Amino acid sequence: MWLLPWSVNSDFYSQYEINDQVSGFSEKSIWSLFNAKRKSTHEAVSIFRFDIRDPTSPSVDRAKQSLKRIKTLRHPSILKYVDSCENEKSICIVTENVTPLVDYLEKASDEFNVTQREFSIAFGLLSVAKGLSFMNNDCQLNHNNINIYSIFVNSSGVWKIGGLECICSVDDKPPPRHECLDEKYTPPEILDPAKARHPGGKFAVDSWGMGCLVWECFNKPLTPSSSVKVVGKMPKTLSKHYNRLVQTSPKHRVSPMDFIKSCNDDDECKFFKSPLLDTILYLEEIQLVKESSEKAKFFNSLESELESFPSDICKNKILPDLINAFEYGDAGSPILNPIFKIGKMLSEEEYQSRLVPCIIKLYTYKDRATRSKLLQQLDSYVGYLAQNVINDQIFPQVLQGFMDSNVMIREQTVKAILKLAPKLTSHNLNDELLKHLSRLITRDEEGGIRANTTICLGNIGKLFNSETQRTILLPLFLRVMRDPFPPTRHAAVAAVRVNESLFPNKDCAMKIMPSLCPLCIDPDPNVRRLASKTLRLLVERLEEHGEKEATKVIEQQSLTKSSNENPDAVAKFASTRITKNANSIKNDLKSLSIKDG
């Protein structure tokens, strides 16, 4: 953490937690760049700092110019101003949190595949072109400093124009650049005024800068030995359009936006026709799309496209747009699948802050299609939901699904309980949930619902308290064994078989086994087979119990006599008696077991 350099104007700097300096950036700029965090909101920000060492230096005026411009120029493609501080020692500008493009591209080379990297570059260059068009045409300003060091990338993957210290009116001569920047960034007509005899459009200087930026995106930052005429690793279909940006004569240069348009008009050049740009543009204009079928088609195709998009753009650009489109754009339930797919890219903290509030809100919607999607996707997000959120906000909404007139919603609600039950409170589980499941299992008109509810209860039976298991769960299973729908009877037998350890031996002998016996001659072969297997299981259990009880009796009798007999003789006698009696009881019980066939 940086402390000493920030002592001046401590009231201002006390609002921020200043972290590490971005290495290497100050070598190519008049600014030093720091990562920071606003203490009041914990919002990540960037701080650009200019130290005033010589008040007469031209760089001081440039820094002041930059501060003036960033305060007044507001555009999605221009670095977002947050705060500032100016005094006799320094000038500081606080902006949205960004990464220098040169660092972003280096990281992208390691983390993105070729397709993702090209998608990211196309998205970024389009953003820069839009920003320059705004400055050149709407503001009548030239940036005069476009290069890889004046472009920054925010958390959404959006490229932002910075380096505003060289801005001037389109009618004025551009000021000199930072002395650390290579003269390759300077257009030929400025280096050699003789080449300015045929002036180009007001955008000519920025077009040259745009060309340098395009070159650097596919190669490395320009050096004295670099040549913008040698396209290097740039895609061939893009290079012929790129050459129109770096024409020696400014008269023949095209504007940055015309460069984009010429690429789009060329059937062979697909660089700015990527699925990523189509997605972002569609989401920006979704309010204009009226047909629900068109929206559904788009969102269904988007789910499969997301894997080819850079993750930062998915998480911080596309996801907020999707959530906004769902809440305010009548996008419908098809939008939920891509939302949950992007959710898999989020960290635990990101999921909690971005998606959980959205999920809670979605459960309040009455739309059946939305509820169906939520229940289908439950497995993908239930792990991120805190227990109190599930019990207080999600579960009460889920309960409504048990009473829905739509069979599919009732069935999906039953299946969802398998994921929610382990996180329910004792009251919600043993009282609220069981009340609804009991009604479904005994009264629902759909046999499939009754069967699935029985299966659900069988799977979560061990979660109920012992009193509920004996007094409610077991009677339910026994009652459902008489259901007219064979799969429901089969599910009831399976539920008893899975949970037999929950019920005491007395209940097994006097309640469960008598109910199973008629099912051994059930018309349905699956029910017959499972009933017979379950009976055998219970008989073996009772046999084992009988052996243990007999052993206890014999041991007790032996201990009673031991006080009057020789200890060694007693031990031998007891051992012999235990073995004989146990074998005798075991043989008696075996004679009662069901025979195969």
From TrEMBL:
<dbReference type="InterPro" id="IPR011009">
    <property type="entry name" value="Kinase-like_dom_sf"/>
</dbReference>
<protein>
    <recommendedName>
        <fullName>N-terminal kinase-like protein</fullName>
    </recommendedName>
</protein>
<dbReference type="Pfam" id="PF00069">
    <property type="entry name" value="Pkinase"/>
</dbReference>
<dbReference type="InterPro" id="IPR051177">
    <property type="entry name" value="CIK-Related_Protein"/>
</dbReference>
<feature type="repeat" description="HEAT">
    <location>
        <begin position="512"/>
        <end position="549"/>
    </location>
</feature>
<keyword id="KW-0418">Kinase</keyword>
<keyword id="KW-0677">Repeat</keyword>
<dbReference type="InterPro" id="IPR000719">
    <property type="entry name" value="Prot_kinase_dom"/>
</dbReference>
<dbReference type="InterPro" id="IPR011989">
    <property type="entry name" value="ARM-like"/>
</dbReference>
<feature type="repeat" description="HEAT">
    <location>
        <begin position="394"/>
        <end position="432"/>
    </location>
</feature>
<dbReference type="GO" id="GO:0005524">
    <property type="term" value="F:ATP binding"/>
</dbReference>
<comment type="similarity">
    <text>Belongs to the protein kinase superfamily.</text>
</comment>
<dbReference type="Pfam" id="PF02985">
    <property type="entry name" value="HEAT"/>
</dbReference>
<feature type="domain" description="Protein kinase">
    <location>
        <begin position="19"/>
        <end position="382"/>
    </location>
</feature>
<dbReference type="InterPro" id="IPR000357">
    <property type="entry name" value="HEAT"/>
</dbReference>
<dbReference type="GO" id="GO:0004672">
    <property type="term" value="F:protein kinase activity"/>
</dbReference>
<keyword id="KW-0808">Transferase</keyword>
<dbReference type="InterPro" id="IPR016024">
    <property type="entry name" value="ARM-type_fold"/>
</dbReference>
<comment type="function">
    <text>Regulates COPI-mediated retrograde protein traffic at the interface between the Golgi apparatus and the endoplasmic reticulum. Involved in the maintenance of the Golgi apparatus morphology.</text>
</comment>
<dbReference type="InterPro" id="IPR021133">
    <property type="entry name" value="HEAT_type_2"/>
</dbReference>
